[in-house]
């Protein structure tokens, strides 16, 4: 009877995936500021079309939405992602430990007084990648970032399908700059991840390539640009367009670029 019960218990654990969750929560005890994202399906991308054919030009013209095509179901393994964008204080610890160059607006390798809880910005993709490696993590893939932001139900924004510029540090929020991480709890994602819209644009690990099954052809696709997600406190060039804060929106940028609203967060695989 004891053996039979043990086999039954093992079968139940396999069905509900409890082993995966135990692994997640074990890692979370080690990384208490990371959020577990369960394995499974989610809706990535969109089939939206800009009926007016608008484009936005940041060195080149890119029709809105088309590079998000098609909306599709993606399956990901479980992973962890930072609850908050990496702060200036956390990045300062990394700089002190490694001698890595600090952002140019810092003084003597230290962030200005009173800014330790602001997201670190003016870092390029290589800076972000090096920090994550030092911490034993990595940059999230674009798919991981998008799932953590919009949940499994394909919502437009972390809080739902309707734009509300006051639920995140967007241009509409009127803050006029970066704010401390976690300042907009109403804008948290379904998994409890903060600031996945607004505050700082966030680097992902992925090159700016077409989504799987996409038929959209666009010249800058390729291994030239990395994908940024989430929108900054005022957008690139301080624009405040609701489109930038949609979870599916993807912005291409050279990995060497540094802007005052470019930041990042880290992720970790779950084995």
What order do the helices and strands come in, and which of them pair?
Elements (H helix, E strand, L loop, with lengths): L1 H15 L1 H13 L3 E4 L2 E5 L10 E3 L3 E3 L8 E5 L2 E4 L5 H11 L26 H10 L7 H9 L50 E7 L18 E4 L21 E3 L8 E2 L3 E3 L2
Parallel strand pairs: 7-10
Antiparallel strand pairs: 1-6, 2-5, 3-4, 6-11, 7-8, 8-9
What does this structure look like?
The protein has 271 residues and is an alpha+beta fold. The protein has one domain (31-269): paralog of FGE (formylglycine-generating enzyme), CATH 3.90.1580. The protein has five helices and eleven strands; from the N terminus they run ααββββββαααβββββ. The strands form four sheets. The protein has a four-stranded mixed β-sheet. A hairpin with a 3-residue loop joins strand 3 and strand 4. The relative contact order is 0.19.
